Amino acid sequence: MLWPLFVSDGLQSDDGTDLGRGTYGFVDAAGHKVVPANYERFTYCVAGKRPTRLVAAREGTIDVFALDGSVTRTIKTADASRGTLLCVGNKTIALVESDETTAITWQEAFDLSTGAKVSAPMTKKRYEGCIGVGAETDPQEPTLPDGYPIDAYGGWATNEDWTMFINIETRATVENPSGTCQGSDGFLNCSGGQFAQVYDKHGNLTEFANVTSRYVLTSMCDSEVKGLVDDPYLWAIVGQVQGYIDRAGVWYFQEPLHTALND
User: CA–CA separation, 88 vs 250, rounded Å?
Assistant: First the structure.
């Protein structure tokens, strides 16, 4: 598998907030940086509900990668930076633009095996399925423990005063945490107090300042693979270090914040 690493370009708004602009590189299954951060956007092709290859776009070029980071196909197109990048049927890459009604206004498509330009595969209905129009994001509401009537998300619940939190799986509790708290895949992120704090599913304070889900597969163009593919890693920040951790809080990959991936 190849996991994305975002490198910020450092641009900030007038109030000092990071604008979230930058490029993507990728880490392989061993936690090694194998693809430099040259790419503006990316998507995955999927079969059997698992990724089969990565497709990433940079100026004038679409690169197709095997999951070990090797390039299997390079497609030259002046339109690589246009529209939404989608893998269709695990064999075609499509660039699609639409208006505010999701009606398709332009598209271009290429065969992933040959790089040849092919007939545009996308209909409005299929495009809406790819980008998740009308899809339920969390159809199953958790059963909350007695005394904790509010869903704090990510496997946590809280009382009406938001002063006591309980992990729904382990029943571990966190009392009067600092700041505002919200769950994320078993971890409890608390921020806004004097220090940002993160608790694991057993209620133990961790070293992390923030833990978030980074589901990398967000658009599926075939009904059999529609939805998110399980992501075993979470994105974490501690001090001036960022990277992926597993569900137990063990580092899978880490690097300094905003480090370039070209070294």
Answer: 35
